[in-house]
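Predict the structure of Transcriptional regulator.
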Amino acid sequence: MVAMRKARHPDPDEISLIDVLGALNDPIRVGLVRVLADGREHGWGELRAPVAKSTLSHHLRVLRDAGITRTRQEGTRCFVELRGNDLDARFPGLLDAVLGAADRDDVGGHVGVANEPPAG
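Done. Here is the predicted structure for Transcriptional regulator.
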């Protein structure tokens, strides 16, 4: 049996503004944050974006490494959720500002969840 590597998540006090802003410099990643802002945990297989699965995996890893999301593995399935409380505690108002601007400008609106219309 092959052991699965456990994902590393930065502690809340390790989350840096530069890493968060860097992770949010891509419309796919902003779209993923918009989807995850519903407060629910989503399986990776539910997420829909106009990129290859390997590229989607890369985007999810960038968000996780920056401290924006938390990934949980259950068997062979992976689940992801937004670390909204950690981000709000570290950078009050930042997430709301990003989500508001993304909504106004429809950044990442082409990202969604299976069986649901994309954001926007």
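The CA atoms of residues 59 and 117 lie 21 Å apart.
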